[in-house]
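User: Teach me something about this protein's shape.
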Amino acid sequence: MLQTDQYTVNIGPQHPSTHGGLHVEALMDGEFVVDAIVHLGYVHRSVEKIAESRTYPQFVPYTSRLDYLASHLPTIGYCQAVEKLMGIEVPERAEYLRVIMAEFSRIASHLLFIGSMAIDLGATTGLIYCFRDRERIMDMFEMTSGQRLVASYGRIGGVSEDVPENFYPAARSFLQDLPKMIDEYNGLITGNEILQCRIKGVGTLSAEDAVAYGVTGPNLRACGIDYDLRKADPYGIYDRFEFDVPLGSRGDSWDRYIVRLEEIQQSTRIIEQALDAMPEGEVRAKVPRVLKPEAGKEIYHRIESSKGELGYYIVADGGEKPYRVHVRAPSFVNLMVLPIISRGGKLQDIIANIATLDPVLGESDR
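Assistant: First, the predicted structure itself:
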């Protein structure tokens, strides 16, 4: 046999298919991947250190910059962590509003996942369709918080303001039109034979490896493991809602895509229930202007983000600023399996694997 030399192909950090400042060093033997080394840190912003130099409320706007594709989720997670630390009770109406915003954020994130995966694999029209529909969610974020992308709507003790009256018809209209959107995605993307060839059986992750590496979220559930924090360890008022947890069986790129597509429909069910059961009342608890948790007290709070388990570990020293804040970022953990699922594949499969792992580099680097 003819012996060939191995060579390196650098993917990123300035490449549209890396979804941000991700650098993958692909070691190739011919056209096959021997290894894929992940390099992070290109967009490091020292968010955890910033948290330690700000008061508890001052850090709230920074949290939406972690997963800026689903900005309500990291903000709600942080607010709930501080509320648990301080023993703050959140009004019922605020809890329902948080659930609605969280699930709309999940849908927006998954829509961007579908669109970006499509264009990564050469299907430009898929991106246009998903962005068209995601814009309607961005409009709702704008009418409630004044911001579209990094909508800092959550507050310690509840939310910043009640939703305007025109929010409800906009939300109902979107939910009503969503089945037609899903049908379009299925006709344009899911049923596309080329896309199926590109991602079926590609980037297979075993359930054992997923658990060993701490993979969470849709990437874990695509391996057939039924683990969703909204059911496994309910927070807020998620135990009041009926929804299913979509699961895959093979753990490949195809299953990761299908699980997220089905999660959009389950989020719709949750939002509809929350809108129907929305109580009247205050949207924010009376919280002291200066928060000073008891010295030595520590807390870890986790939520089911669009990318997986997003956790906040906070240590208080009795002052108005936290002594230590650590963010358990699901994208960072999930990216660690990229070498495993890429070895033995082709160079083009690395692009499909990155797309279906769906990392956001804002929280990977923090």
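Now, about its shape. The CA atoms of residues 141 and 147 lie 6 Å apart. The longest helix spans residues 92-120. If you'd like, I can walk through any region in more detail.
User: That's plenty for now, thanks!
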